[in-house]
Structure formats: structure tokens, C-alpha cells
Design brief:
Blueprint: E1 44-50, E2 55-58, E3 65-74, E4 81-85, E5 94-96, E6 101-105, E7 114-118, E8 123-133
Antiparallel strand pairs: 1-8, 2-7, 3-6, 3-8, 4-5, 4-7
Amino acid sequence: MAPDQTGLDALNLPGRPAPLTRAPRLHPETAFPVHEERRYGRLMDVPLSIGAASVSVLAAPPPDARRTFLFIVNTHATLILYVSFGNTATLLSVPINPGNGAIGFDAFVPQNEIFLIGNGAAVTGTLSYANERT
């Protein structure tokens, strides 16, 4: 750019940083995708109300997918929730304490069918999970 009438280059005054330049434009075929549909699953929340009988609350993922996240919260104030992986839950299964006790998996995530049982009627909670396609 030619200097202006004052003799100073309006875009490159002394003491000012160099003018900004536009970044090169990426071509879609070389751009890194921000969201890979086959890589990241969608988080699903399932409200729970579990009684004193074992119930299957989450099936094993289909053959073309894998579970990438699992989190179970017991929101009941006084009753215990028990979880079992691949087998019917009993009162000897893994306990989840009352009052927002939780169990979560994000690094090693069980791929089994998930069973729950409560030590009373209507034990409330939330099950959150995500699957990704392989």
C-alpha cells in the first residue's frame, strides 16, 4: 500500500503490530471434523424407579456399537440400589448408597446387560449412558 499524505503507512504505523492477515481457508476434504458421528455417542438419561425384584434396565449394546459411558445415581433418600452386570441383581450385588450415591464408568465401561434391584419399593435414580458405533 502506498504511504498516505503524511508519509506514514496507515496500516503499519511505528509502534503498532503488523496488520492482521486472513488465515488460509481450509478445504472441506482436508479439514478436521469437529464432530465425528461414528466416534461420539449421544448421552441418554433414563429415570429409574426400581422395586424389590431384579429388573434389566439396559441391554447390552448391539454388535455394531460399544458403550462408552455409564453412570447410575441413587436419588432415593434412604433406600439402597444394587447393580449387577450381566446377571440378575440381588441384595449381594454392588450397592449404590442412598442420597445421590453413584457409580460411574468412563474408561473401562461394562458392555454387559445392566440389572438393578432395590431394598424396598420405588427406589429412584437416574441411569446415564452413551454408545458409539464401531
